[in-house]
Amino acid sequence: MMYAIGVDLGGTKTAAGVVSGNGEVLFSDTIPTLNREGSAAVLDATAGLIAGLRDRAADAGITVGLVGVGSAGVIDAARGVVVSATDAITGWAGTALTAGLAARLDLPASSVLAVNDVHAHALGEAWTGAAAGTSSSLLVAFGTGVGGSFVLGGAPVLGHRYAGGHVGHFASPYAYDGGSPLPCVCGGAGHVEAIASGPAIRESYVRRGGSSLAADTRAVFGLAEAADAVAAEAISTAAAAAGQAVGGLANILDPEVVLVSGGLADAGERWWQPMEAALRAELLPALSGIPVRPAALGNTAAIVGAARLVLEPAGLGPAGFASALTSRRN
């Protein structure tokens, strides 16, 4: 059986695990992402995390020579370069991600592949999670931001410029205040993320007259449970915006199954029920029976999906994946 190390490299933490050819996570570890110390420091720390897991695997008699990475940012998966990124990681845009890790780990460049972290998340769910066995799946994650991925025939659709999956950045009729579009972190306005993300719920609560002492989204949910009507309204509006957006995407893509993930999806029925109601209200009649499921793999999804990128014979494998990406690019 072949093994790979899958890495979930986010703005706050970096998790990695040794994954078997059947998708089982054998060992895992997590470190803080050195997000204010520059890309070289992030690569150094990530390589150290991977090397430690490789050593643990070796102690167990397992040889690991493949690394897949799901990373924050827009990732040119053919070259393994971060095309663009937010300021969640200082200096991340332009980083030669796969080459940098391969050099630090003394691995051939072809042994390390990378995609955006939400694509990795969706790929993990499509392999062994809630979309296992399906021909296509749409995953949308609602948390600190809003992101998504469409997996078709076992591979995420990355887009010509590798920006596919930025589903938080199209217009939402909910993302307005007094007729003015709400600003979005991407620099635009009136987008889904501006109303449906976790931080947007807290901002909506304060904007509607709620106490600014509510520290974060979790606090707003706590207030809603304590019968704060303003908090409940902020949550239900965000959930409706999320559901409408996912329903519209499902109409366009017609996936076999829809998965909804992220911190808000894990928040319980107060968010899930109005989200799914709005989603189903948006669907075309032909899609009325589409399954809508919570993601199943939790924090291991992106690790499993990142490993899937490089494992053979599962999926496309290193050569096939890189070849497919290059052909799309050209």
Task: Explain what this protein looks like in three dimensions.
- With 330 residues, this protein is an alpha/beta fold.
- The chain has 10 helices and 14 strands.
- The strands form 4 sheets. The protein has a 5-stranded mixed beta sheet. The chain has a 5-stranded mixed beta sheet with strand order 10-9-8-13-14, with helices on both faces. Strands 5-6 form a two-stranded antiparallel sheet.
- Helix 5 crosses helix 7 and helix 6 crosses helix 7.
- The chain is globular.
Give the overall average pLDDT: 94
The backbone outline, from C-alpha atoms, is: globular
The CATH topology assignment of the largest domain is: Nucleotidyltransferase, domain 5
Strand order of the largest sheet: 3-2-1-4-7
Could you tell me the number of beta strands?
Answer: 14
CATH class of the largest domain: Alpha Beta
Order of secondary-structure elements: EEEHEEEHEHEEEEEHHHHEHEHH
- Give the % helix: 25-40%
Main sheet overview: 5 strands, mixed
The CATH architecture name of the largest domain reads: 2-Layer Sandwich
Query: How does the helix and strand content classify structurally?
Result: alpha/beta
Q: What Rg do the Cα atoms give?
A: 20 Å
Question: Which keywords apply here?
Answer:
globular, 330 residues, 10 helices, 2 domains, Nucleotidyltransferase, domain 5, single chain, 14 strands
Characterize this entry briefly.
With 330 residues, the chain is an alpha/beta fold. Helices cover 38% and strands 21% of the residues.
